[in-house]
Design goal:
Elements lengths: L18 E15 L2 E13 L9 E8 L2 E12 L5 H9 L4 E9 L7 E8 L2 H9 L4 E5 L2 H14 L13 H4 L15
Helix pairs in contact: 1-3
């Protein structure tokens, strides 16, 4: 019986996927302040793997305990892009890397604007851009299997930009108020 062997192409992309199916666990609890009851939302964690893959985003009530409700949002993905490798690398350098869950508020919700997860990313710059546009962004610890996949992706695709030392200009000589010669003025007009 013969075995078919395939030579590994070092220039080929790694066999690991660049899209990882994920589900997000989000908690809603009611906080009472000064006679007001305010809903507070928080992401508790991310579960990753093929067993949580769904074709569409769906919300499932996981538990209800007094003033707390936990929902599992499935059908989301973590997509890794080559142009985000530097941000992934900086994230991995942290003692505890994070995933960022970007949400949009559902203002039509009767319970006070439920955040709907629309994006899960390991890119800190992308999460920051969403925070600057006032989208709710939650950070959750990156699960170890996801961290391993992100690390393999970064090792395979990250090429640090070459640092270029800029040549310093002598601003004093070029300045109108510096010690250099006065600028030439065309007075022929």
């Amino acid at each position: 019986m013969s075995e078919k062997r395939v030579a590994h192409d070092p220039g080929a992309a790694p066999p690991n996927p660049t899209v990882i199916p994920v589900s997000v666990l989000i908690e809603r609890r009611v906080v009472s302040r000064g006679g007001w009851s305010i809903p507070h939302w928080d992401a508790l964690g991310v579960v990753a793997g093929e067993d949580v893959a769904r074709s569409e985003a769906e919300r499932t009530l996981v538990s209800r305990d007094g003033d707390r409700e936990r929902y599992l949002w499935s059908g989301l993905t973590l997509a890794l892009h080559k142009d985000g490798c530097e941000s992934y690398w900086h994230n991995l350098l942290n003692e505890r890397p994070y995933l960022f869950v970007v949400c949009f508020d559902d203002e039509t919700d009767s319970q006070g604007g439920e955040p709907t997860p629309v994006l899960v990313t390991a890119n800190q710059d992308e999460a920051n851009a969403h925070m600057e546009s006032d989208d709710p962004v939650f950070s959750v610890p990156m699960p170890d299997p996801v961290r391993d996949q992100v690390e393999r992706f970064v090792v395979a695709h990250y090429v640090p930009e070459e640092k270029k030392k800029r040549k310093r200009r002598n601003w004093a000589e070029e300045s109108l108020y510096g010690r250099g010669p006065p600028p030439k003025v065309d007075r022929s007009v």
